[in-house]
Amino acid sequence: MTAVHVINGPNLNLLGRREPAVYGHETLADLEARSREVAAGLGLDLDFRQSNHEGELVDWLQECGADVAAGRSVGAVLNAGALTHTSVALRDAVVGAEVPLVEVHLSNVHAREPFRHHSYLSPVARGVVVGLGPLGYELGIRALAGATGGAA
Ligand code: CA2
User: Fold this and answer.
1) Residue of 5, 23, 120, 137 marked active site
2) Phi and psi at residue 70, to the nearest 5°
3) Is the pLDDT of residue 150 over 50?
4) Are residues 42 and 141 in contact, defined by beta-carbon separation less than 8 angstroms?
5) How many Å lie between the centroid of ligand 1 and the Cα of residue 83?
6) From ligand 1's centre to the CA of 48, what distance in Å?
7) Are the beta carbons of 64 and 71 closer than 8 angstroms?
8) Model-level pTM greater than 0.90?
């Protein structure tokens, strides 16, 4: 069965336990369950991961690209956390592995500190969803499932 990848970066394992005013009350496990339900409804398997390590995220994006090339995945929903604002390596992985990407952020990064306003990933993403909480993951999965080579 074709999969959709959902990849989460540093500190997102803390979701639901700290800063609920910014990130809400749902845990990463809640997000995974919600994503699995959405993916299943679209006839997709879910590959849901989280890492605090940049290199591991690079490896996973490369794996995802290989799966897309082999027809085993429709692409990745990526919440790269703070690495969004710093990582040329993640951007290069997306481009190098030709990953159809939807960038997602739970919070509205544009309403926060200026250092969160820039993303290395947005220019190489098919689409970006910010500030809509867990709904962003659902929208990202739906967009990738419906991708036809044009938008998302
Ligand atoms: O809004 C988002 O989803 C972010 O990607 C979350 C990152 C932040 O660095 C980005 O600027 C925006 C932070 C993830 C850390 O999540 C925590 C959750 C609970 C408690 C502490 C951190």
Assistant:
1) 23
2) -90, 0
3) no
4) yes
5) 10
6) 17
7) no
8) yes
